[in-house]
């Protein structure tokens, strides 16, 4: 498990160095400063957050607590005071900051820290602390197990493929008692550094085993918010897609219904056209066909009373055929001459005598004629007629 944690820490250190080495931190600081300048000071101070560093250092026979970057002490506790008094005094001084944002640095005197400038190959940046630990025996008069050390990248390029770093080391017998005494006062330093004016030099000598494990509630909250935003965004996109799919299904259903109605309407139209065509055909046939009653009426009126018909036919083409008996069948041609509905009468075959009735049996053909309706010309108004006469040359 320790090897896994070390590997994870190594990857995090690589990411931090890559971040610090890029131009993004400077841009983000500039951009944040420009945005912060637009916020009223009262709101800016009310919502200000982030890490707040405090410095605790040994001054003579007392411990002094102050804010990083300031020289005024917030609390001071001498060794002669009771431990409960000193613990309460420091706790009250540190209560001004949120525990999630509060960071404490133990500052050692410069005389107790040995600092060396190192020139290392660029490949050593990925595991800078381990590389510096191998060089402790050569850079300091101590062995690696006798000191607590820290190393930082100075961000300086020294020649091609090399960079500058700073190694800081202090004896364990000097640092461990100080850490134990601070632990008895209820203070767990987040780093051990060297004073640089009122601030920190930036070299952390705190042993990895004594680094406090903190729960960053703000980071957790931010993680929860980011996850919630992602979930809400996915839910919103899913809802949008669902609504689009539902709308598409509704449109498809409506289109299918309209297509069904269109097909039904087309079938009705086809049936209507067929019915209209059939009706028109019947009407035309009725109009074009000769009427039977006028033909029968005229045939009855013109034939003699002693002549009767045994069969009568009138087909769609207007062809008339009738068969019967008459005392003098030859006179029937003259009787039908001048008929309005019967034209071109003629005998079909020969006239034969019927021995039973003593009359002549005949079969005649003719053509039915239907008189055309008279064309009525539309009446022309007098005014229009006079205008036409006036316009004529």
Automatic annotation (TrEMBL):
InterPro entries: ATPase_NBD, Extracell_DNA_Util/SecSys_Comp, PilN
Membrane-spanning intervals of the chain: 221-241
UniProtKB keywords: Membrane, Transmembrane, Transmembrane helix
Protein's recorded name: Fimbrial assembly protein
Organism for this UniProt entry: Luteibacter pinisoli
